[in-house]
C-alpha cells in the first residue's frame, strides 16, 4: 500500500465560480454554528451532567483520580494504556477541563475532515474539491458517533485520526506504523490496520505498528499490572466493561448475537466463526481497493471490519462507517446516490426514523449501524476506478418543461424534471425520513391546552359568522345511525394513508415522470401544513369543553384531565389546522382527475375528498375551516411545484428520433421508448 495520489490538487482547488464560493461560505458557517452550539451545550450543562464519561474518569472522585483499580467500579472502559495517558489530566480536572476537552475534540473533528478530503481517490472535479472539506466536516459534526463522543467526553476520534494521518499525511514506513500502533493501544481492534499494511506490501510499517502496540501495552502492564490483568484477561479485552454487552448500544456481532438470545459457549463459538469470516472477506476487499487506488475506501472497509468483530462497539466508536460514504456504487446516475444516502442517514438519524415499528424489520432497525458496517465490509459492490462508469455513470434522462402560460412565473433552472424512474430504495428512505420528521415536528408543535382552545373558539366564532358551523349537527346526526358512524370511523382511520401511498406506488411503476411531480406537490403541502401546526395550534371540536361534541373514533375523553388521558402521548391532539386528512385526500382527487385514463376512475377520485371531509366533520375531529386550510396548503403545494419545475406537461429531451423506434408518452408529449420500459409506461 503506497502513498496514493492526493485527490485535491492545486489545479482542482481553483475557484470554480461565485456560486460555489457562496455555497462553501454557507457550509463553513454551518460548521461554525454546529461547533458553537456544541460548546454552548457543554457550558450550559451542570458539571455533574456533562461529559459523563470524562467526569467519571477524571473528576474529583473519578477512577483516574483516586487510588485503586481502574476497573473495580466498572466505570472505566478504556485500555490500561488509555488510563495511563489520561492520568495526567486529573491534575486539571477541576479547572474547566470539560470546555478545553470539547474545544480539542472539535479541532480533532476538523482535522479529521481535512485529512479525509485529501485522501479522496482521483480524479476529483474542481467543484467537488472546492466544497469537499466543509461538507466532510459538516457530516462529521452531525454524525451520531461524533455527537455521542462530544456528549460523553470520549476519546474515540483520536484513533481514527491517527490511522488517517498514518495512511495519508506522513511518509516513510516507521512513523505510520508507530501511529497505528498507538491507535491500537487505545482501541485494540485498530490493530487490523497493521495487518492491512502487511497485506499491501508495507511489511516494515506493519511490523512497526505491531511492535508499538506491544510496547505501549507492555508499558501499561508494567505500570499497572493488576489493571492490565483485569482488562485483558478477566474482562476479555474489555468485553465485560461498560453497559451490558447485549444492549442496543453495542453494535458489534457479539452484541447482536446476545440480543438474538444466544449465550454461553455456543454464542462465543458462533461469534468467533463469524468474526473470522468477516475479517477474511473484509480485508481481502480492502486490499483490492487499496491496490485500485482507493485507499480511503480500503481504510473505511477495514474500520467497518474492526467495528463488527470487536467484542463491544459502542456508538462513539463507529465513525469508521461514515468513511465508507466515499465508495461509489451503481452504474446509473439515478443509483449513484443510494449508498451515500443510506450511510449518511444511518449515521445521523436514530433507527426508529429509518424503519417503521414493524416486527419483521425490528432486527434490522435495532442493528442498523452493524448492518451498514457489515454491508460495507463484505457485500456492497463498490466500483473499481478502472470501470467505465467510475467517472461517467449512465446519465439520468432529463425533460424540458413546456413553456409556462404565465411568462412571469420564474421557473428555476436548478430544479430539473427527470424522466427516468427514481431508485426505489432511495425513495422509500426519503418517504420514511420525511414522515418521521413530520411526526416529530407535529408532536413538538404544541403551545398548550389554553392556546389551542382559544383558537378553537376563534374558529367556531368565525364559522358561526359565516353560517357554516355544521359540525355539531353532523356529529350528532351520524351518532344516531350506527352503521353510518362505523363507516365514517373506519374511513377516517384507514384511508388517510392507504390511498396516497397507493397512488404514489402506481405512479412509480406506471408513470415515473408524473410520480416525481406528484411526490413534490404532496411534499410541499405537508411541509406547509407543519408550519400551520406550529404557528396555530388548534383544538378539534371533540376536545372543546362545553360544546357537546361526541368523539366517535377515540371514545370519551376526560376533558377535566390536563393531559386528556393517554391519547395525547401518541400524537399531538392540537395539530388540527390545516387538516391533512382532507388535504391529502384532495391531493389524491386532483392527481386521479388529471392522470386517470378512465372516466369512472376520475369520479372515484373525486369522491374520496368528499367522503373524507364528511368523515372528519362527522366524527368531531376537524372544523370545516380546517378543511379549507388543508385545501390551501395543497393548492400552494401544486403552485410551488409549478414555480420550481414548470407545468406537468413536459417536452422530450429532443434526441434524434428513429422512425422504427417505439415511442412512449411523457405527460402529453411523445418521446422514444427505451427498451424494456414499454410495458411499464401507460399513455396519459
Provide structural commentary.
By secondary structure, the protein is an all-alpha fold. It has helices spanning 18-44, 52-58, 80-86, 97-118, 126-142, 144-152, 157-168, 174-186, 192-199, 203-223, 225-234, 253-259, 264-291, 295-309, 319-323, 338-348, 351-354, 362-366, 368-379, 424-444, 449-466, 471-479, 482-510, 512-535, 580-595, 599-618, 624-645, and strands at residues 400-401, 650-651, 663-666, 669-672. The strands form two sheets. The protein has a two-stranded antiparallel ribbon with strand order 1-2. The protein has a two-stranded antiparallel ribbon with strand order 3-4. Strand 3 (663-666) and strand 4 form a beta hairpin. The longest helix is centred in the C-terminal third of the chain and has 29 residues, at 482-510. It is globular, with a radius of gyration of 30 Å. The model is unreliable at 1-14, 565-570 and 656-684 (pLDDT under 50).
